[in-house]
Design a protein that fits this description.
The protein is built from ten helices and 24 strands. By secondary structure, the chain is an alpha+beta fold.
């Protein structure tokens, strides 16, 4: 692993990166059909003009403007919704225009060589778009991605999109389903040295614990086994950066923990830089040396997982990482908290339950069994919070408990 004056050197630098998608979808219900509103009418045509770049896959939740929530249109009336105009000739028509927007917006960060990096965010936050921009699969609107100081070329600047020193494992795995496991992996290596090719293939298969599957066809494997083959195929050819798009989405809980540990072990042994995106915060907390939190295409926090968990800068971060309790300032002060901002935020494990009278009285509204602990839903004067109970069965539904909040954040 390379170091510069005792510090890991940067391998990827992202500067002011922006890539936006926007599409408009229209649905209508009319009681009196008109020839002017036939299939392929100007309504569909006009709506499609809102963004000619929206031919790529769009991720993200639908966003409706108030004007487009629902509009009643009568004959000959012209409606203008977020710049989309249509003249309709039906007697009665309900037109709903839904705008979908996602991507990344002015994102900048550096990634260190040999680190495992996790990009965490809810669905539609721009994680996969960011990963594809890093790899060079998407043409960016602004900014640039540098790999070892050199700009990563976009898909229109080279014959085969994607950087040659990076490999990306997508959710569909991109495997030859008619070939054997061994052949899928070995196909990434040259035939100039057959012995070395065989040794490298068997070595990476052993690392990922799939050497016993070498003679099986891909169609005979489970989803988790196919995932391991896809990762082995990506790593076998001296890859510098491994990009993983939701790598554990098709893996059961037991295999997920094994695969997480394998990826971390391989990264440490080979020095490969791993960049993964996930909506599951456990992936980042378990694996990452560096954690990036993304919301609505913006990078809102970056740092060590433990630092971000203990000191989140935003309510969104606390909620996505630890399902935090979020109280208004008024409710926080009702619980005796010295709230100086709009919200008081604290994790369930920061709540202490007492059997004595010292504390704030709460009623247990519900108990959720979580395995080695229970999560309690507590209520006091209309204020609801969640707490962790390690001693299973100690407090039951409708019990009265005393609560102390050991720590909270002003956010």
């Amino acid at each position: 692993m390379s170091y510069l004056y005792g510090v890991k050197e940067s391998i990827i630098t992202v500067k002011g990166l922006s890539k936006q998608y926007q599409t408009a979808n229209a649905s209508s219900a009319n009681t009196m059909p008109s020839p002017a509103l036939s299939s392929g009418s100007s309504i569909t045509s006009d709506l499609s003009k809102t963004d000619a770049s929206a031919t790529c896959g769009v991720e993200g939740p639908a966003v409706k403007s108030p004007a487009a929530e629902a509009m009643e249109v009568s004959a000959g009336r012209v409606q203008d919704v977020d710049g989309v105009s249509a003249t309709l000739t039906t007697d009665t028509l309900t037109q709903v225009v839904t705008l979908r927007s996602s991507g990344v917006d002015d994102v900048s960060f550096e990634l260190k060589k040999g680190d495992v990096v996790a990009i965490i965010g809810e669905s539609g936050s721009g994680k996969s778009t960011l990963l594809k921009c890093i790899y060079g699969l998407l043409e960016v609107d602004a900014g640039e991605v540098l790999f070892k100081g050199n700009r990563v070329l976009g898909p229109h600047e080279q014959l085969i999109p994607g950087h040659k020193e990076m490999k990306m494992v997508t959710q569909d795995f991109s495997l030859n389903i008619y070939a054997k496991v061994y052949d899928n992996i070995a196909s990434m290596l040259s035939n100039t040295d057959i012995r070395s090719k065989h040794e490298k293939t068997m070595e990476i298969m052993a690392h990922l614990r799939i050497d016993h599957l070498k003679d099986k066809k891909i169609t005979q494997l489970s989803g988790g086994e196919q995932q391991r083959v896809a990762i082995a195929k990506a790593l076998v050819s001296d890859t510098s950066v491994l990009l993983l798009d939701e790598p554990f989405s098709q893996v059961d809980a037991l295999l997920k923990n094994q695969l997480r540990a394998d990826i971390k072990r391989i990264a440490a042994a080979t020095g490969v830089t791993v960049v993964m995106v996930s909506h599951d915060p456990a992936d980042g907390l378990f694996l990452a040396d560096d954690l990036l939190i993304v919301k609505n295409g913006k990078l809102i926090q970056q740092g060590k997982p433990s630092d971000i968990y203990q000191h989140p800068d935003h309510i969104y971060t606390a909620r996505i990482l630890g399902n935090a309790n979020v109280l208004t300032a008024e409710h926080g002060k009702m619980l005796g908290l010295d709230v100086k901002t709009d919200s008081a935020v604290f994790y369930p494990e920061w709540v202490t339950l007492n059997d004595n009278v010292d504390g704030i009285g709460f009623e247990v509204k519900d108990v959720y069994f979580k395995g080695f602990y229970e999560e309690l839903l507590l209520e006091s004067d209309g204020v609801f919070i969640r707490a962790i109970q390690m001693n299973i069965g100690q407090h039951k539904k409708n019990d009265q408990v005393q609560v102390n909040i050991d720590r909270f954040l002003n956010l």
